Every structure is written in structure tokens, then in C-alpha cells.
TrEMBL record:
Domain FAD-binding FR-type: 204-306
GO CC, alphabetical: membrane
Organism: Kineobactrum salinum
GO-annotated molecular function: 2 iron, 2 sulfur cluster binding; flavin adenine dinucleotide binding; metal ion binding; oxidoreductase activity
Protein name per the record: Oxidoreductase
Residues passing through the membrane, by range: 39-60, 81-101, 121-143, 155-175, 181-201
Main localization of the protein described in the UniProt heading: membrane
Keywords attached to this entry: 2Fe-2S, FAD, Flavoprotein, Iron, Iron-sulfur, Membrane, Metal-binding, Oxidoreductase, Transmembrane, Transmembrane helix
Its membrane topology: Multi-pass membrane protein
Highest taxon of source: Bacteria
Cell compartments where the protein resides: Membrane
Cofactor: FAD
């Protein structure tokens, strides 16, 4: 299935209740200002709840499902956008109904807003809970703490239940049995998705591994080596996983899951995961004990296509080298001729992670070339630098992985050089 079709179907599912409600409105609904406002108030409430339930449905992480949408990062962006639109629609819902009621009298409008009954109170409760768990998601108070954000996000399930109860008690726009059927199907799918994430995924979709080594390619980066206990994970180069350590002596992060990119080649017996110190958990994992257990859930992501015969330009920044490292290790094992150029951007020579190994790939992999870009020497990455070292960049598929500003800069350079938009691919790895 084409990705645009997956995206379109997901959005259609979210707005379908509102479309059915729109078709159920009686003739003459839009003849007066009060009628228009009342109809919009109902449709925004129905549309907001539909999108909220679909947002919950896509929050589960079945490995492989995210590839239909271009990877888990893209699916998360859809999740965020749907959640934001859902909140705005649900916020507009009571205001529009109150404006419609103001056509009768101010007292009627106030009565619409005032939570005098259980049903209206449930609706306001859902809105208030959405404000609480959405605030950190959109960084209203700065970058959120990952585990705190995860805990607060569980309120989304309560908010959805309150909104559903509010709708069942007051729904009268869509004729029965369609109204009940629509909400039961969407609510059932959302509950199934949440149950998968909270119960099934933790029991059946996790892979147990043992820590067999901790390498330190830099002061603030470690690379864990893991061997499977039982069934090994199957994955593709450039994908990422959620790792949960079970070393109780860790100073932070014990039994907390965090996403990390695989740096190993798919053909290896074990896994390798490069982790940069970006917080308490990633800092503490550098001291994880040999022989301790970790659990892996995944794989996720669709950075590299399964099959590609085109020439490629890779641009990595800092720890963003990880997906390219995994793919280069895979190519080194295969020994097949390729046409790939890697530009690796780092501050200076000391921060070139896996630099020696990458240089060896230039001689081991036919058609693989490496260009180092040092910010202290070359300044910000520029189009002239890219074209000087990769003159045919416009004819290549371009992959970028690094900090957001670098990815944005590479995109500008690629498009200015004539690279078609659909030939540019980036991995921002922003999963909050």
C-alpha cells in the first residue's frame, strides 16, 4: 500500500463520525446563524472525539505496522497532529454551542457552559484532562522528562472514556443505531490498541537479551553488545528498538524503556546499540553489568528502503551516524559493489564516533566513500562543500540523520541542488 493511502485512510477514519453526522443533519439546519453555530458545535464535538480515538489507536507499537506510514517517527507526528486538532475541536465544541444558545438569551448560553449535569461535567472533565497531558507533549513548560511525560500521557485513556460517556448521554445528531455502532467500533479498537500496548506487548512482543560487552567509542557514548536469550530479533539496518534494562544496580533507568537505534548489521548473531549520554537513563546505562538482562521491543522505523538500487548520499551528524553504521557494517559483510557517499559532520576529530571503522569501510566496500566535515575547520555544512565532494548529489537518494537543524540544512542543500523532494529522507528520532 502506498504511504499516502495509509495516511488518507487514517484521517478518513478519524473524521468519518463527523461526516456521517453532517449527512444526518435535517434540512434547514444552516438557514439561521443559530442553526449554523449549533451544527458546528455538534460537528466539532463529534469530529474531535473521532480523532481522539484514532489518536489512541495509533499509539500502540506493533512492529512493522509503522512502515505503512514511513516509520514510527512519522506515525508519531500524525499522532501529535491528530491529538492537537482533536483538542482544538473539542475546545471549540462547547463555545460554539454556547454561541448558538446566545441567540436565544445570555442565560441560555451560560446554562450550556455551566456543568450543572453529569453529562456536561464529564465533557468538561475530559477537556481538563486533555489540557494536563497535552501541555508537556507540546513543551508548553520546556522539554518534558520522558518518564513523567509517559505517566501523564496515561490520562489520555481516562479523557477518552469521559468524552465517550458524555457523547453516549447527549448524542442526538446521528440517527441510531449508527451513532452507537460508530462509537462502539472506534472505542473497541482504541481499547484493543491500549490493551496490546499495556499487556500483550510486554509479554509476547519482547525479546530477552544478555549484556555481553560495553564498548566506549567516546567519553559520552557507549555501544552495548547483546546476545539473545531465546528467539533473536529480526530487523533491518537503520531500524531502532525500545530497550529496557533489568540491572537493579543502575543509578537510573531500571526497568524504564527508551528508544535506541541499532548499530549492528542484521546478519550478526547479537545486537549492538550505540547510546549517547543525553539524560539520567542513557548516562547510567554505561555502567550496566555484564550478564545482566535487557528486554528489546521492536524493530521500528523505515529509514532505508527494503530494496534500493539507486546511488545514495548519506549525511550524518554526531550520534546520527548510528543507522549508517549499521548499514555500512551490513554492506561490509556482503561485499557487494555499491555507490554510496557518506558525509560525516562532527565538531572535531575527537568526536568522530567509529571514525577508524568508517575509514576501513572505504577500502572494504567497493563504491563506498567517506568525507569528514569538521565544524571547527569547515564551518556549517554548505552546498558548495557537498557538491565539491559529491558532484552528482542531485542524482542520488539523500539520507540525513542528526540534530534537527542539521537535517533541515541538508534538506535545503539537497533541494537547492535539484534533488526531488521524494528522494530526500531524514530521521529525526523525536518520539515524544
Amino acid at each position: 500500500m502506498y504511504r499516502w493511502m495509509s495516511h488518507a485512510l487514517l484521517w478518513l477514519l478519524g473524521v468519518l463520525p463527523a461526516l456521517i453526522a453532517l449527512g444526518s443533519l435535517p434540512a434547514g439546519t444552516f438557514d439561521t446563524a443559530g442553526g449554523v453555530l449549533n451544527a458546528l458545535g455538534r460537528l466539532t464535538g463529534i469530529g474531535g472525539l473521532g480523532l481522539l480515538l484514532v489518536t489512541a489507536i495509533v499509539s500502540f507499537r506493533i512492529p512493522g505496522f509503522d512502515r505503512l506510514f514511513g516509520g514510527l517517527t512519522t506515525l508519531w507526528h500524525i499522532h501529535h497532529l491528530m491529538g492537537a486538532i482533536s483538542f482544538l475541536l473539542l475546545l471549540a465544541h462547547p463555545l460554539l454551542l454556547a454561541l448558538a444558545a446566545s441567540q436565544v438569551s445570555l442565560a441560555t448560553a451560560v446554562a450550556v457552559l455551566y456543568p450543572s449535569g453529569v453529562a456536561v461535567g464529564l465533557g468538561w472533565g475530559a477537556l481538563l484532562l486533555m489540557m494536563v497531558f497535552l501541555a508537556p507533549s507540546f513543551s508548553f513548560f520546556g522539554a518534558p522528562h520522558y518518564q513523567r511525560w509517559k505517566s501523564l500521557h496515561k490520562l489520555s485513556g481516562v479523557a477518552a472514556l469521559l468524552a465517550l460517556a458524555h457523547t453516549f448521554m447527549l448524542a442526538r445528531t446521528t440517527a441510531e443505531p449508527w451513532s452507537t455502532l460508530i462509537w462502539l467500533v472506534l472505542a473497541g479498537a482504541a481499547i484493543a490498541a491500549l490493551s496490546y500496548g499495556l499487556v500483550f506487548a510486554r509479554r509476547a512482543a519482547q525479546h530477552r537479551y544478555t549484556v555481553t560487552g560495553v564498548a566506549r567509542p567516546a567519553n559520552n557514548v557507549v555501544e552495548l553488545s547483546l546476545e539473545p536469550v531465546g528467539k533473536a530479533l529480526r530487523y533491518q539496518a537503520g531500524q531502532f528498538v525500545y530497550l529496557t534494562p533489568y540491572d537493579s544496580k543502575l543509578q537510573a533507568g531500571y526497568r524504564e524503556e527508551h528508544p535506541y537505534t541499532l548499530s549492528s548489521a542484521p546478519g550478526e548473531s547479537g545486537l549492538r546499540i550505540a547510546i549517547k549520554d543525553l539524560g539520567d537513563a542513557s548516562r547510567a546505562i554505561g555502567a550496566i553489568a555484564h550478564g545482566s538482562e535487557v528486554r528489546i521491543m521492536g524493530p521500528y522505523g523505515a529509514f532505508f528502503p527494503v530494496h534500493n538500487r539507486d546511488s545514495e548520499l548519506w549525511v550524518a551528524g554526531g550520534i546520527g551516524i548510528t543507522p549508517f553504521l549499521g548499514r555500512a557494517r551490513e554492506l561490509a559483510v556482503r561485499g557487494e559493489a555499491v555507490d554510496m557517499h557518506l558525509i560525516y559532520c562532527v565538531q572535531d576529530e575527537a568526536r568522530a564516533l567509529f571514525g577508524d571503522e568508517l575509514r576501513r569501510f572505504s577500502s572494504r566496500i567497493p563504491g563506498f566513500s567517506l568525507t569528514m566535515h569538521y565544524f571547527y575547520k569547515h564551518g556549517p555544512l554548505a552546498g558548495d562543500f557537498v557538491r565539491d565532494h559529491c558532484s552528482d548529489c542531485a542524482q542520488r537518494q539523500v539520507y540525513a540523520c542528526g540534530p534537527g537543524p542539521l537535517n533541515g540544512l541538508v534538506r535545503q542543500i539537497a533541494l537547492a541542488a535539484g534533488v526531488p523532494r521524494h528522494h530526500f529522507h531524514s530521521e529525526e528520532f523525536d518520539l515524544l
